Amino acid sequence: APLTRRALLTGALAVGGLAAVGARPAVGERAVTTRLVAGQVARRLTPEQPQASRLRLYNGTVLPVLRLKKGQPVEITLENRLPDEHTTVHWHGLRIAHAMDGVPYITQPPVEPGESFTYRFAPPDAGTFFFHPHCNTVEQLGRGLAGVLVVEGDEARPFDADLVLAYKDWDLAPDGTLGPFLTLKGAANAGTFGSLTTVNGEVVTKERQPVFEVPAGADLRLRFLNLDNTRLLGLGLHGAEAWLVASDGQPLPPLELKNWRMGPAMRADLALRTPDRPGAVVEVLNQRAAKPKVLARLVTTGQPRRRAPFEPTHLTGPFLPEPQIEGAPVVPMVFSTAPGPSAPPPELAGLPFADALCLNPRTLWAINRQTWPQEGHAHPPAPLATLQRGRTYVLELNNISKHFHPIHLHGHSFKVFWSSDDAELPVHWADTTLVAPGERRRVAFVADNPGDWMFHCHIIEHQETGMMGLVRVA
Ligand code: C2O
Ligand code: CU
């Protein structure tokens, strides 16, 4: 029988281990506290696999959903119960203080096994975000350490239902082992693709996709997250008209959804009216390839909730400082292969990366011809740029490589306002933007959050092989 999940009604939340949050705090009151336990769990991802996979999860749940409220102070204690490695939590897209950003050595000491660390912040923006470690990310994220973060408080008119769909592939071998996560061949190209696709941890195949019940004739908010290490998606819907109402958590004027390109770490909030007829199906599609793939089916139930025709409304916000683009300094950021030969010698292609690295230590990718030292976060390079606090900057993201790069800046959201390839690119806010091979993209923001912020590709194998740097706001 197909798996059925009832769409979470707004406010009615039940998520493994995280329900404590949102117990009933009003904004401005005492901090809400909750725990995130990072641990190793043996679990089968498919019924067919002969033995369980070694997953790494928060609170024993695949992609748990944490719901917070805009402006509500929280204290989230990370407990590291991983047997063998340190970790941290990075709150991707949240414009919070540097000390809470979760980058080992740069913003905090790494949290060793058996230790804990408490993150304290009040989410400044409502929207759809996520969290993940910033240590050995390719494997920790690859084994499942990530969660969805929904910050409530941006709806001028409430939706009837709110559904989170989080996409992730797993690098699953037939015997149930996961990995290798990082291969020289993958890292030097578009990345190592997983073999098993899931949405909210439910397996997606050509024959069968997860099914979610949604109310008929109702206003649905669909929060779609690409939480894969590698895969690029083209988000589309079949069976209903949908509007993009937020990108990376930040509202934008409703834009009819056709095919929204989503690299790893990117999020899209959609607003739509579900069909009136109970039992109708809306398909959520990956239209990246010529032949679209169905990722999930939304099936309507009950009597239609709404009579008036649907009108996509603007979410409240964004509440971001408006960049003064005219006359702002333009900082070039060039994304390329590392200086020197970059193609792996044929005898090393396909080897697990760690092995290949022993034989042939090097980095593969660079920003402004600078690569992050291979020894990891503990050895930060000089900043790529030093920005004056409070000023507007334009970053010109110039991809001179043969592969796509979803580029992410910590601690800020930026306005994507120009592309050399796409004159029709809608102006929108983002914290991660996908730059195509040969494309130049301009993004602008007010550098208002002091600190040394990570700036990197979110194809994790690219990040871990050099395409990572620091932007200093001082
Ligand atoms: Cu989600 Cu430094 O990234
Ligand atoms: Cu990349």
Automatic annotation (TrEMBL):
**Which Gene Ontology MF annotations are present?**
copper ion binding; oxidoreductase activity
Which superkingdom?
Answer: Bacteria
GO BP term (any one): cell division
CDD domains documented for this protein: CuRO_1_CumA_like, CuRO_3_CumA_like
- A Pfam cross-reference name: Cu-oxidase_3
What keywords is this UniProt entry annotated with?
Capsid protein, Cell cycle, Cell division, Metal-binding, Oxidoreductase, Virion
Q: Which PROSITE patterns is this protein grouped with?
A: MULTICOPPER_OXIDASE1, MULTICOPPER_OXIDASE2, TAT
Please state what the protein is called.
Multicopper oxidase with three cupredoxin domains (Includes cell division protein FtsP and spore coat protein CotA)
